[in-house]
Design a protein that fits this description.
The chain is mainly α and about 160 residues long. The protein is built from six helices and no strands. Helix 2 runs antiparallel to helix 3, helix 3 runs antiparallel to helix 5 and helix 4 packs antiparallel against helix 5. The mean pLDDT is about 80.
Length: about 160
């Protein structure tokens, strides 16, 4: 088992160094202490920000946005899942807000819905960034079979 962990760690770090996005199960990663998950997540987010800032092509921007908003494994949908789980748990554990005060749980529910909308907007931007660059339209020649104006034929 120790040999497998070493190979998995080495492979994941080689892929990361090559610029690929890698998720390595913490139980396989020999370089991460069990309590280092938060620090690893913060390093990952900082790395995404650096990649976005250093992006030289729209496809590189699209890759970062995919990491953020991909429907199943994107960061924002995963955070939304945490917020929804907390919203459900808080709803089961807490009483309604006093009359006349805003209901924090209702606001939390709306926030989760907003996160879903934000993920969709980010994916839309990702799709736009992933499109090949459009070249500006140049004057196109007249369609075949159409006669040129008389002044053009004389030149």
């Amino acid at each position: 088992m120790e040999q497998q962990r070493l190979k998995a760690t080495a492979a994941s770090h080689a892929l990361l160094a090559a610029g690929h996005s890698v998720h390595l199960d913490p139980t396989l990663n020999m370089l991460v202490a069990p309590d280092g998950e938060r620090e690893a997540a913060l390093r990952y987010l900082a790395g995404l920000a650096e990649r976005a800032s250093a992006a030289a092509t729209s496809s590189e921007v699209a890759e970062v946005l995919t990491e953020v908003a991909a429907p199943v494994h994107g960061l924002l949908p995963l955070v939304r899942e945490v917020v929804v789980s907390a919203w459900i748990a808080a709803g089961d554990l807490q009483e309604a807000a006093p009359a006349g005060e805003p209901d924090p749980l209702a606001l939390l529910g709306r926030t989760a819905a907003s996160m879903r909308e934000a993920a969709l907007a980010i994916l839309h931007a990702r799709n736009h960034a992933a499109r090949p660059a459009q070249r500006p339209a140049t004057a196109s020649p007249p369609p075949a079979g159409r006669a040129l104006p008389a002044e053009s034929r004389r030149r």
